[in-house]
Specification:
single chain, alpha+beta, Immunoglobulin-like, 2 domains, six-stranded mixed beta sheet, 3 helices, 17% helix
């Protein structure tokens, strides 16, 4: 019996260990390997064998531009990759994205529709092989000048790899933008400055932001430092951004002014104001007293500014003359 009990305990331990191995999550390295498509897509090297992070094409309206895409199969089995062109755009938070193949065609086709792989829209790449696929980009005769963002997209078994295409159509370049909807949201360490940037020109922009803060009562708190935004703002695109402001005051009326610049002479400025108060009734009471004090100070200032020094009192009337004495009889 003791031996049987020991065997049973050992068997149970082996079963638990096996179950743990079955349900244990894969290591991060194994998960990453499972997510990798097993192939790469990149611009083919030019005559100087230089590595290109993206395609850069430039030409006048009506021209046909050519380039080559390199597909590298790093696995031991062949890969069948589908190729297409796609328009590029900014997401609401400023990230770059490409239009899905299933999306409805836009009213005005973009540069993605100008890309053609001819009969090579589907390419089979043998194991451990590098295939170079040529493509053309035909610029329509009536294309407006400026930047037309696009991408070459390679797809296989649900995996997509997009390679940026920077297309510049010849003609006047206009760098212009606006900053809109400036607002301070939240309070305390969670306060942020929210704003919207709109590219009103025809070239892609890398904006730089500077913020100025003015307060009604206290010293102006230090706003976020000036910096170049990690955003490439494409022509005609609108993005909604925020800047954290952990040093925002707890009780004051604040006005923030945003100045945005970009290479090419683009410049814009806009502002917004808000009462910053702690939450709850005490905060609103303090805000009311603060507003009352500010209003009283402003009223006194206006009264003094308009009336000047108080007027002196009117002079007293002169005394009445004394009556002449009556003549006496002689």
């Amino acid at each position: 019996m003791p031996v049987l009990h020991t065997l049973r305990r050992a068997g149970a331990g082996l079963l638990l260990a096996a179950a743990a191995l079955l349900v244990a999550p894969a290591s991060p390295a194994a998960a990453a390997a499972a997510d990798e498509p097993g192939w790469t897509a990149e611009p083919a090297a030019g005559t100087a064998a230089a590595v290109r992070p993206y395609f850069y094409l430039a030409g006048a309206p009506g021209t046909v531009l050519e380039d080559r895409l390199a597909l590298v199969n790093t696995t031991d089995r062949e890969r069948t990759v589908t190729l297409r062109g796609a328009d590029a755009y900014n997401t609401a938070d400023g990230a770059l994205a490409v239009r899905p193949a299933t999306a409805a065609a836009p009213a005005t086709p973009g540069a993605g529709s100008w890309i053609s792989f001819g009969t090579a829209t589907t390419v089979t790449v043998p194991p451990r092989t590098r295939a170079v696929v040529p493509f053309t980009l035909t610029v329509p005769p009536a294309s407006p000048p400026g930047d037309h963002p696009a991408a070459v997209v390679a797809t296989e078994a649900g995996h997509e790899v997009a390679v940026r295409v920077h297309l510049r159509v010849g003609g006047p370049a206009l760098a212009a933008l606006t900053v809109e909807d400036v607002a301070v949201r939240g309070r305390g360490r969670s306060a942020v400055i929210a704003y919207t940037l709109v590219n009103r020109g025809n070239v892609a922009l890398t904006p730089a932001l500077r913020i100025r803060a003015d307060s009604l009562v206290g010293d102006a708190p230090a706003p976020p430092r000036a910096r170049t935004l990690p955003v490439e703002l494409l022509p005609g695109q609108r993005v909604e951004l925020t800047e954290p402001w952990p040093g925002a005051p707890a009780l004051d009326r604040i006005r923030v002014t945003l100045s945005v610049t970009a290479p090419g002479g683009a410049r814009a400025e806009a502002g917004g104001s808000r009462w910053l108060v702690p939450g709850g009734l005490p905060g609103w009471t303090g805000a009311g007293l603060l507003a009352l004090g500010a209003t009283t100070a402003a009223a006194l200032y206006l009264v003094r500014g308009r009336g000047g020094a108080p007027a002196p009192p009117p002079p007293a009337p002169p005394p009445a003359p004394a009556a002449a004495p009556a003549p006496q009889a002689g």
